[in-house]
Write a structure and sequence with these properties.
heterodimer, A: mainly beta, 7-stranded mixed beta sheet, globular, B: mainly beta, 6-stranded mixed beta sheet, 5-stranded antiparallel beta sheet, 11 strands, 0% helix
Chain lengths: 113, 110
């Protein structure tokens, strides 16, 4: 079975903290994604990685960075957390470029206070 | 820019009452249209991929269809366990990302 695992289900952080969200996939997929999901706005792409150490900005990259040092692991970093980054964060992976579906992790509900 | 609009926002059904969800899209060359199911507090679960107009896919009580401008997700004789938010997403040719709609939340009462 396809599996994408996010390190935390729930996180509470203080404004200004540096926050790391970790994601691991066990399917040898090339592509990995970070989305955030907010009510009424749907899923919005933050960053995408198509290979180790390679990354592309998505629609809303401001305030975020990413790291992909190994093929199976993709980290999202909030450099200085702010209250408007309170959201559900979803990691996904897909096999190759195009024509393949993305599989999602269970999500991390982040609250910044 | 790719756009995906789902309607209605919410749908309340009686068990056994069939209905359809709509996904209208604008994309410069469609590579694929994807349907996902999402339960509260969980990540989306993949249901179907449709690639070309006229294509249909079925899974249990769900059937997805595709035209050049929209896709429908038909729920036949739904059960309470079909209650979830259903998400539609499109991927354009020569693009890596999925553009999602805001979803339709379906509630099926016993």
């Amino acid at each position: 079975d396809v599996k994408v695992t996010q390190s935390s289900r729930y996180l509470v952080k203080r404004t200004g903290e540096k926050v790391f969200l970790e994601c691991v996939q066990d399917m040898d997929h090339e592509n990995m994604f970070w989305y955030r999901q907010d009510p009424g706005l749907g899923l919005r792409l933050i960053y995408f990685s198509y290979d180790v150490k390679m990354k592309e900005k998505g629609d809303i990259p401001e305030g975020y960075s990413v790291s992909r040092e190994k093929k199976e692991r993709f980290s999202l970093i909030l450099e200085s957390a702010s209250t408007n980054q309170t959201s559900m964060y979803l990691c996904a992976s897909s096999l190759i470029w195009g024509y393949t579906e993305a599989f999602f992790g269970q999500g991390t509900r982040l609250t910044v206070v | 820019e790719d756009q995906v609009t789902q309607s209605p926002e919410a749908l309340r059904l009686q068990e056994g009452e069939s209905s359809s969800l709509n996904c209208s899209y604008t994309v410069s060359g469609l590579r694929g249209l994807f349907w996902y199911r999402q339960d509260p507090g969980k990540g989306p679960e993949f249901l179907f991929t449709l690639y070309s107009a006229g294509e249909e896919k079925e899974k249990e009580r769900l059937k997805a269809t595709l035209t050049k401008k929209e896709s429908f997700l038909h729920i036949t004789a739904p059960k309470p366990e079909d209650s979830a938010t259903y998400l539609c997403a499109v991927q354009a040719e020569n693009d890596y990302k999925l553009s999602f709609g805001a979803g339709t939340t379906v509630t099926v009462r016993a």
